[in-house]
Amino acid sequence: MTQRFCKVCRGWxxxxxxxxxxxxxxxxxxxxxxxxxxxxxxGLDDVWNPVNGKTYDSKSAYxxxxxxxxxEIAGNDSSITRAHEKAVQPKVPTGLKDDLKSxxxxxx
Length: 108
What we know:
The chain is an alpha+beta fold. The chain has a domain at 40-82. It has 3 helices and 4 strands. The strands form 2 sheets. Strands 1-2 form a two-stranded antiparallel ribbon.
């Protein structure tokens, strides 16, 4: 008959019998039921690679492309990953500013 000390009720329980329900530790509801709750996934949300201009949805494929280009990742600057999203400035025809000014002056 083997016994074990219970940290909840501070008593001894026989291991041949089922553990008493009132002596089970409270369940942490913030903890996941998954057997490996800290699993890191390989997926990405379409990360743009500035080296070759392609988007990747896999971390391993992204890291491989960076390494194959002879580069290395040295930080997490988000301004680089969003550089391709900047709005393109439209080209203003030459003399448009002067034409608009003269039209404004003529109407006022």
